[in-house]
Design brief:
Elements lengths: L4 H4 L9 H14 L4 E7 L9 E6 L1
Antiparallel strand pairs: 1-2
C-alpha cells in the first residue's frame, strides 16, 4: 500500500499497520484457508517506499 493516511504522519522503527494487516488476513483466511496468516514486512512509517505484507500458512 502506498500513500496510506495512517502511515503518512507516523514514524516508527517497526510496522504500524496492524488494522490493515488484520483486515487483510481475515479476508484471505475466510475466503481461502483459515490457516493463512499475514505479516507486515515493510512499512511507510519505517521509511519504506510502500507497506508490504507477506501471506503464509500458519
Amino acid at each position: 500500500m502506498r500513500n496510506h493516511p495512517v502511515t503518512q504522519a507516523e514514524t516508527s522503527q517497526q510496522p504500524v499497520c496492524l488494522f490493515q494487516q488484520t483486515v487483510l488476513e481475515t479476508v484471505f483466511s475466510h475466503s481461502n484457508d483459515t490457516r493463512l496468516r499475514l505479516v507486515e514486512t515493510k512499512c511507510c512509517a519505517a521509511m519504506a517506499d510502500a507497506c508490504s505484507f507477506e501471506l503464509a500458512m500458519a
